[in-house]
Amino acid sequence: MSSPPAAPLLLASTSPQRRAILEQLHIPFDVVAPHYVEHDPPDADAAELVRRHALGKARSVAAGAGDRPVLGVDTTVALDGRIYAKPTDAGDAERMLDELSGRTHAVVSGVALVTPAWEHVEDTATLVTFRPLTPRDLGAYVAAGEWEGRAGGYAIQGRGAALVERVEGDYLNVVGLPASVLVRLLAERFAGTYGFG
């Protein structure tokens, strides 16, 4: 006799990238838009910032979740102690990408799992090295518009892959959800329920 299907996670995010990663991992989920306003001071501690945002997103929808676990995720880019959040316009995106050019930055994510009984939040980082970018590279990428709504001004799963020389760590973290952390948490907290552990 097979066990009943797992109650879907509630994903406190409208990110299509995060939805695609959960689908790739065959984790059942439903989407609820979080009621949470992010504030990203450029000099904030990246790990502390993403943990706070991930937990805030998860908590913002947990009241209506019943017993279902709520997943909150937040991702930012950090270099030299500075946060590179979502660019405000094309000029801001070009400035960010120029500063990341030829250097190694950290993509830092916070992951929060919230249930009525407990909350767990942690952070993880992936190192991404950009190749040296020419003014033509920058202009062409920014003109394509892919920078919009992306921390650091790029999307590695799209044309942004052409900016990247090397990735050290969880590639899916750079896309928007650190799968390695989530799978480990589900295996530890819900052994067998979602197919892990």
Structural summary, described in words:
The radius of gyration is 17 Å and the shape is elongated. Strands 1, 2, 3, 4, 5, 6 and 7 form a seven-stranded mixed β-sheet that branches. The two termini are 20 Å apart. A hairpin with a 2-residue loop joins strand 3 (70-79) and strand 4. The model has no long low-confidence stretch (mean pLDDT 95). By secondary structure, the chain is α/β, with parallel strands linked by helices. It has six helices and seven strands. It has one domain: Alpha-Beta Complex (Maf protein), CATH 3.90.950.
Structural class: alpha/beta
Based on Cα principal axes, name the global outline. elongated
* pLDDT < 50 stretches: none
* Whole-number count of domains: 1
- Termini, distance in Å? 20 Å
- β-strand percent reads 15-25%
> Which fold name fills CATH's third level, the topology?
Maf protein
The CATH class is identified as Alpha Beta
Kindly state the percentage of residues in helix.
25-40%
CA radius of gyration: 17 Å
Give the biggest sheet.
Answer: 7 strands, mixed
**Average pLDDT, to the nearest integer?**
95
The CATH architecture term is: Alpha-Beta Complex
The total of helices stands at 6
